[in-house]
Amino acid sequence: MDYLLEGLVTAVKLLFSGDESTWSAVWATVKVSALSMSVSLALGVPAGFVLGYARFPGRKALRLVSDTFMALPTVLIGLLVYAFICRRGPLGGLGLLFTLRGIAVGQAMLALPIVASLTAEALEGQDPRVRDTLLTLGASRSRLASGTLFEARHAVMAAAVNAYGRVSTEVGISLMVGGNIKWQTRTITTAISLETGMGEFATGIALGLILLLMAFAVNISLSFFRRRAGLALTGGGAS
Amino acid sequence: MRRLTGLLLLLAAAGFVLAALPGPAPAGETLMMATTTSTQDSGLLDYIAPVFEKETGITLRWTAVGTGKALEHGKNCDVDVLLVHAPAAEKKFVEEGFGVERRQVMYNDFILVGPKADPAGVKGKTAAEALKTLAVKKAVFVSRGDESGTHKAEKDLWKACGMTLPDKETWYLAAGRGMMQTLIMAGERGGYTLVDRGTWIKYLSKEKDKATLAVMVEGDKPLRNQYSVMMVNPARCPQVKKAAAQRFLDWWVSPSTQKLIAGYTLEGKQLFFPNAGK
Hints:
The complex is a heterodimer.
Chain A: H1 2-16, H2 20-53, H3 59-69, H4 74-85, H5 100-124, H6 128-136, H7 141-151, H8 153-169, H9 172-178, H10 188-197, H11 201-236
Chain B: H1 2-20, E1 30-36, H2 37-41, H3 44-56, E2 59-65, H4 67-75, E3 81-84, H5 87-95, E4 99-115, H6 127-137, E5 141-143, H7 149-160, E6 172-174, H8 179-189, E7 192-196, H9 197-207, E8 213-217, E9 224-232, H10 242-253, H11 255-262, E10 265-266, E11 269-270, E12 273-274
Parallel strand pairs in B: 1-2, 1-3, 5-6, 5-7
Antiparallel strand pairs in B: 3-9, 4-7, 4-8, 4-9, 4-12, 10-11
């Protein structure tokens, strides 16, 4: 039990004393999850839209694949990415091993099926009247698509939050691909595993709390955006 | 819709800008090293790397993994140099053409530790006798079980006393974790384990009077833990920074570095004993 209290105190100390290595890990985590999330959203939302909205042969099978990949273990992704980007691997020339970009590749693979599947599910479950209403209003095909996606924005946001939750907390990919290199690829989660490995449980807990704090900040700002979007909607109509 | 697209675009842009920002840019050349967890967890690297950087102008970066994985990184040309402690595996590594210029730099030693009460009665025996006794009494033994240098040393010890590795026995627990976690596990389970002295000193200073483990066997010759440095074979891996790697090797065996190693203490105790060229 001592660990918990000690962890809390250490967390406050690390953050407010401007501890260089802690902030370096925080910064690395921010950078890598921002990159992987933007890649997975840029690819995953359109993919999920197609999967959930369009009707084509093989769609069900693709959905099944995407749903299954939501359960991809991070160590497996880490190993796969490592096999491709180690210097003797097919993509070794890119120099991605032991870099944040390399980690982001793996994390994007982790987040992509989550974003795609949850987006698809939201669109599948959408009230058919949305489509009818949009059509009645004389929407063109592209307006129909964008309008449909807009109506599903909260679900897409939830998908993003969900994916972020897995991305920011994974350790398998970061450890295998990033190598936990101090000042460079040491993220909060790999720092936690290092501290735990050294028996520094309180510091580990402190870093865990900092990670939670970051997730809290992300969710706060998202709900702020959501409210803003909501207000704009009631105030000025669908923009 | 525009708002949502805008938000997504903003997020994406922010992500790319963040990723494009340069990290702390090393001034000169950077050497990448794969090493074992013990050199990092003992604090030796944090103590010694800044001196190396100051004296050579080369930035040293490392990934600390088990010796097995470190050698694998060498085979895959992921790194330039290695600092590891598994002499037999290293010799094979060099013979197979994966590494060159292997040089021994220092040693520390392993200790057999166990519950203070010593239920199996192995205290003061030689390492070989102690292990045999543990097997006869079926006392709980926690093994690293992760192909680390310590794990390899432990397997060699079982072999040296003429036994097959008891890894199917119920009293033999293969933890698959780092040294400190393995120690903690041994403490919790009231078992025996083999530990490097650095981690042991850390454990004692952390647990203080709460420590449930004590030294059973130490100072026996087979318990010596030899560390070596080597270069990943540049003939196989053309991207290895040969000149910088050569300086790295020369630096480790130089008299001033050897003195530096001897001067590193943890809780007032010397951890590594330099023995380059011996």
